[in-house]
């Protein structure tokens, strides 16, 4: 049965989560990921061939260009907040009027491209984020994602039955039983962020594992979203929706590791008082990748 928690309780829990959970520094063998790859990983999920399998924010309204992403917002400030949320913690953003610019560097720390967020004069549009190469075009990834923030009132209406399913079965704290392996495991997953038109939903499955990384093609931008969802809702999930899930006490952090066998890896680590480590990879082999994203699709809920 869906549990109800008052707005006051939710606010208090979120404040406690922010105050009690701390973030540690990665260990000495951490490797740097390209900032552009980090940004792309926070926008979409891709398969090994580089094809988009799901959108982590908004959706694509232009079938001719899958890398053109649209996000519904109510105002410019909301769009700017979403843009900043795509960037890693500590990213240096320059401001010129209403234009925000983040200069991205590659694995060696050299300038690679800029992500520019600015007003968009298009019909129904508020702002847009575009990627501009700093180096010659062939030195930057061939894909060029863009994000277009449009008025919620201009967003295409979708009266799919899946929205009712999401509200009934995929609410914050709901347990979702995944029986078909879509590449990231099966079992009971717990929703840590519901779906909205602006953001995909997120659900995770906790499992113990060693700190030795397995899998490849990390998705640190997506991990950033998982981490933020945990930070915002951790106490609410634990206290309001069931200690039976075995939630650990938090002391979690990012880990980006450069190894000759697997390349750079990323995980959110959750540490219990019993020195047991839980960790979440957002890409890699099914038994280590225990994160699904979801959204409505017609009369069903789509997972990726």
Q: Give the overall form.
A: globular
Strand content: 25-35%
Largest sheet: 6 strands, mixed
Radius of gyration, taken over Cα atoms and rounded to an integer in Å: 19 Å
Helix/strand-derived category reads alpha+beta
Number of helices: 5
Q: What is the H/E string?
A: HHEEEHEEEEEHEEEHEEEEE
Number of strands: 16
Low-confidence stretches: 1-31, 210-218, 250-266, 272-279, 281-288
Oligomer: single chain
- Terminal CA distance reads 26 Å
Strand order of the largest sheet: 3-8-7-6-5-4
Kindly state the mean pLDDT as a whole number?
A: 75
Helix content: 10-25%
How many structural domains?
A: 2
Write structural notes for this entry.
- By secondary structure, this protein is α+β, with helices and mostly antiparallel strands.
- It folds into two domains: 7-30 and 159-303, no CATH class; 35-154, no CATH class.
- Helix content is 21%, strand content 31%.
- The protein is built from five helices and 16 strands.
- The chain has helices spanning 7-20, 35-43, 76-85, 162-169, 220-241; strands at residues 44-46, 52-55, 68-73, 93-96, 99-105, 111-119, 125-133, 146-151, 175-178, 187-193, 201-204, 253-259, 263-271, 277-280, 291-297, 300-303.
- It has a six-stranded mixed beta sheet, covered by helices on one side.
- It is globular.
- The two termini are 26 Å apart.
List the SSEs and their pairings.
Blueprint (H helix, E strand, L loop, with lengths): L6 H14 L14 H9 E3 L5 E4 L12 E6 L2 H10 L7 E4 L2 E7 L5 E9 L5 E9 L12 E6 L10 H8 L5 E4 L8 E7 L7 E4 L15 H22 L11 E7 L3 E9 L5 E4 L10 E7 L2 E4 L1
Helix pairs in contact: 1-5, 2-5
């Amino acid at each position: 049965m869906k549990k109800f928690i008052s707005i006051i309780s939710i606010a208090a829990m979120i404040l406690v989560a922010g105050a009690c959970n701390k973030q540690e520094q990665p260990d000495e063998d951490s490797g740097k990921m390209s900032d552009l790859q980090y940004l792309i990983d926070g926008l979409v999920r891709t398969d090994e061939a580089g094809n988009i399998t799901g959108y982590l924010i908004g959706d694509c309204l232009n079938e001719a260009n899958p890398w053109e992403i649209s996000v519904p917002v109510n105002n410019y400030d909301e769009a700017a907040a979403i843009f900043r949320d795509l960037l890693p913690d500590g990213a240096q953003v320059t401001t010129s009027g209403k234009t925000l610019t983040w200069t991205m560097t590659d694995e060696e720390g050299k300038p690679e491209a800029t992500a520019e967020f600015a007003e968009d004069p298009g019909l129904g549009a508020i702002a847009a984020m575009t990627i501009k190469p700093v180096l010659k075009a062939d030195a930057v990834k061939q894909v060029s994602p863009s994000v277009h923030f449009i008025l919620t009132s201009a967003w295409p209406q979708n009266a799919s039955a899946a929205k009712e399913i999401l509200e009934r079965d995929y609410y914050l704290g709901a347990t979702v039983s995944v029986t078909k392996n879509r590449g990231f495991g099966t079992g009971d997953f717990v929703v840590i962020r519901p779906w909205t038109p602006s953001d995909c939903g997120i659900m995770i499955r906790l499992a113990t594992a060693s700190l030795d990384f397995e899998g490849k093609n990390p998705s640190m931008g997506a991990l950033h979203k998982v981490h933020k969802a945990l930070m915002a809702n951790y106490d609410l999930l634990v206290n309001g929706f069931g200690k039976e899930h075995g939630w650990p006490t938090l002391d979690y952090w990012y880990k980006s590791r450069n190894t000759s066998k697997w390349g750079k890896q990323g995980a959110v680590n959750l540490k219990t008082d019993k020195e047991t480590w839980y960790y979440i990879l957002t890409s890699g082999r099914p038994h280590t990748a225990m994160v699904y994203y979801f959204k409505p699709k017609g009369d069903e809920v789509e997972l990726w």
